[in-house]
Task: inverse folding
């Protein structure tokens, strides 16, 4: 699953800090989590990539993220664009 959000000017460091301190711990507890990455795309957005073994894990991650972003990042980021699907190739 890929989530992309635009962030407000100069908030990258604060968003990164909050994600690492407040979001990573709960998402680590979701069954089936394989990997989570947060990427500063340098065009006014941050993209997160979450890899889960099951669709249920992915859906739980969406619920956790939606709730947490509303309370933990609301003033720093804009609306989310979410893409999800099955991995068809990997290295």
Result:
């Amino acid at each position: 699953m890929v989530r992309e959000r635009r962030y407000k000017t100069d908030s990258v460091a604060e968003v990164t800090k909050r994600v690492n301190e407040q979001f990573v711990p709960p998402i680590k507890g979701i069954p089936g989590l394989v990997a989570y990455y947060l990427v500063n795309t340098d065009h006014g957005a941050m993209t997160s990539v979450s890899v889960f073994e099951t669709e249920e894990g992915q859906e739980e991650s969406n619920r956790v993220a939606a709730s947490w972003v509303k309370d933990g990042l609301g003033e720093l980021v804009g609306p989310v664009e979410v893409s999800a699907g099955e991995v068809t190739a990997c290295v």
